[in-house]
Amino acid sequence: EWRENGRRLTRSLKHRDWIRAKRQADEAAAGLAVHEPGGNAEAEPEPLTLGMLFDIYGEEVTPTKRPRTQHHDRAATRTFLKFFGSDRKPETLSQRDWDRFIRARRAGRVGPSGKPVSNRMVECDLRFLMTVLNWAVRSRDELGHPLLGSNPLKGLRMPMSKNPTRVVLEEEEYQAMLRVSRQVDWRFHIALVLAHETGHRIGAIRKLTWADIDLERGVVRWRAENDKSGYDHTTPVTPEATEVLEEARSGDHVTAKGPVFPAPRNPSICAGSVLAHQWWKRAERLAGLEPKGRRGWHSLRRKFASDLMDQPLKVLCELGGWKTAKTVLQCYQHADEGQLRKALEARRRFRG
User: Distance (Å, rounded) from C-alpha 334 to C-alpha 331?
Assistant: First the structure.
């Protein structure tokens, strides 16, 4: 067997002699193969299976993605192949398969952890499956034929959480963590202030380098390769953010284009996500905050969006690095009781 333009081709040699088969394979590779009597004159492509499709996608598309996304692609691939079978033909997938997978994944009967998962995780897996199937519809083999005629799962409904938990960090909680931030780590103090003042993800903040910081202009460049949304943009920063950046810049560890948050054991690379998570948990304990699920770095991003609720959505999206206003409205902004009462009071004054 061999690959040609991403498709796996096979030809029967009509014997089981390994040494002879190896010689023929070497000759074929050199372009010198001679078909023996009784052999197939032309190779015919095998029918496309899920195993072949995921294999091609994994070789051609997955390597172009970010490391974290590549990891999810590979994990989801193993999950789907185990559940549906690698020999399953993709065009035979149906609503029943879709529903069966959702039930099994929710219950933890399939998946890398073996534990029940939320609808959000099931949705992530299914979106990957849809991406692979849609890619197969757009892609063609060496004869110009689509890898897949149509997506058999197109239009099926994704599982959605009715009331997803999206915690917004309270101002009192932020101030409590800020007071103990220097006890945790000088890098945590700076990262906490930047997360609060810029509204960006901790992943993008961790990967900042001094080449991205222009203290004279008071702006920060957020590189597309370091941001989940892949959005390259530049934003101004507040005096509070400028102050902590100047403090960090004065340290002995600083190099012209080095990381703003150097790793403890290797200052030439950025601090990792595990370390940032540990900083947060330690700060919560030192601040005496009661444990609360999903109150992590991302709760600061939601706080940023909620604090600037009175600003035009276009301005907010540019400041926080959101591509669409829909995401902000659905997932990030949270109106508290004070804002609701303020709106009602403004309506009362308007009516006289």
Answer: 8
